[in-house]
Design brief:
The chain has helices spanning 47-65, 77-89; strands spanning 4-8, 23-28, 34-38. By secondary structure, it is α+β, with helices and mostly antiparallel strands. It is rod-shaped.
């Protein structure tokens, strides 16, 4: 086990609950090695984040198929139009954002 001491250089009273951006100093008692870094809590993806990224993906898919819409003789025209409808409707379905529409 590594023996260390930890100090919050930004606010010493927050050693047990540092805030993002606090400077934290960790010293290895055995070797004297000192490590100083900014504290950043772990990122936890929220439902809002998942919805945002799902809509970004959806918008990219719509953009990638924009060129097919006016090409009525394109071999995948009908399927692409149906896919685009599914993409536009997707945020209002119970599958959003877990199950992406497929072509």
């Amino acid at each position: 086990m590594i023996n260390t001491t930890t100090e919050n250089l930004t606010e010493s009273s927050r050693i047990d609950n540092p805030l993002n951006g606090d400077k934290i100093k960790t010293t290895n008692i055995d070797t004297g090695l000192v490590f100083i870094a900014s504290y950043h809590s772990a990122y936890v993806e929220t439902q809002e984040d998942m919805n945002f990224f799902a809509k970004l993906w959806r918008n990219e898919e719509l953009s990638k198929t924009d060129h097919i819409v006016p090409l009525t003789d394109h071999p995948d025209h009908t399927a692409t139009l149906a896919y685009r409808v599914a993409l536009r409707d997707w945020p209002s379905t119970s599958d959003f954002p877990d199950t992406k529409p497929t072509l």
